[in-house]
């Protein structure tokens, strides 16, 4: 068996925080990735805003999901926690 509790905790941390900020971030049920909707339709442009905040995300367009971004749950919990203020600043820039 594989202990998935670490990934579930990361998923919950990331999805809860992003949803509280105003992102639409559904919880995946069996994936190492989260696919939140970007706050602007142009996911590539939003990746640039995130990069200004020191956050690396993958545009959803590369996976047939334009207007979304792919975030990895294999990132250490401390890095996810560190990224949250940047996600908050990025969504504010889009309002």
In short:
By secondary structure, this protein is mainly alpha-helical. The protein is built from three helices and three strands.
Report what the structure shows:
The protein has 95 residues and is mainly α. Helices cover 46% and strands 8% of the residues. The protein has helices spanning 5-21, 43-52, 77-93, and strands at residues 33-34, 58-59, 69-72. Helix 1 (5-21) packs parallel to helix 3.
Which features does this protein show?
95 residues; mainly alpha; three-stranded antiparallel beta sheet; 46% helix; 8% strand
Helix content: 40-55%
Radius of gyration: 13 Å
What is the terminal separation in angstroms?
Answer: 44 Å
Helix-strand string: HEHEEH
Q: What is the number of helices? A: 3
Biggest β-sheet description: 3 strands, antiparallel
Instruction: Please mark out the parts with pLDDT under 50 across 5 or more consecutive residues, or reply none.
Output: none
Please give the structural blueprint:
Blueprint: H1 5-21, E1 33-34, H2 43-52, E2 58-59, E3 69-72, H3 77-93
Antiparallel strand pairs: 1-3, 2-3
Helix pairs in contact: 1-3
